Amino acid sequence: MRKLRASLLLAVPLLVSACSKASQDETLRIGFPEPSTVEGKIILNLWQGTWIVALLIATLVLGLLFSAVILYRRRNEDEIPKQTRYNIPLEIVYTIVPLVIVLGLFFFTARDQKELIKLSGDQKVTVNVVGFRWSWAFNYKEAGVYEIGTPALPPTMYLPVDEKVKFELTSPDVIHSFWIPAFLMKMDVIPGRLNAFELTPNKLGEFSGKCAELCGVDHSRMLFKVKVVTRAEYVAHVEELRAKGQVGTLNTGRIETTGNTGCLGDPSLPGCKEGE
Ligand SMILES: [Cu+2]
How confident is the model over 15-43, as a mean pLDDT? Predict the structure, then answer.
């Protein structure tokens, strides 16, 4: 099945053959970044599978279209084609076939989604992600520390590699959406509701994240970074936050928060001046 998928996807752009291995891989992912989580492969497979179905259908439809254009073209000025009012078997086929395709796509989507949003509760790290106008706070629940950002100083989330993490998403104001493209996963952050999902990052490195829901004027500034590090570096970071006094939990946006969060050098926030 994997070989079939690769060959079908490779067959599409023949120009790929002239390209490097890296760009071939990129073409095979059809725009998706390289998955940096264990679960990312499920999403990538679904994406590629859907493309294969779409390409097969496109080939069939275009093939029928052009063969009809060529085979049944008008051959002289007076020709009137045979008039057909209906063709029951054909109509049954073109009703059933799309139905099977849609149900098939639905089946695989529902199957994978069930797996992806399943909460097993055996995570090593739990991060309560608070999306607020206009940045993010990360409450590391086991460690009892937090990080908070501003539009000018986007926060960085640290995660230990190869350990399952549960993200608990909350918002004190409007709907945001928590998205780390390299993790191939995105979920809405809805006020008054606890959304959650679990992932296991399996590649060391720095990844970018953003808000994926048009939430207001500074939506585009709701950026953050994710650093997937070794367990030792993760622990060191937690201790760093503790040393800075960022202990406890932030449930609301920083604007309503007093104390240690301060203005973090961002004069654009209400009540904040340059140098604060
Ligand atoms: Cu937002």
Answer: 82
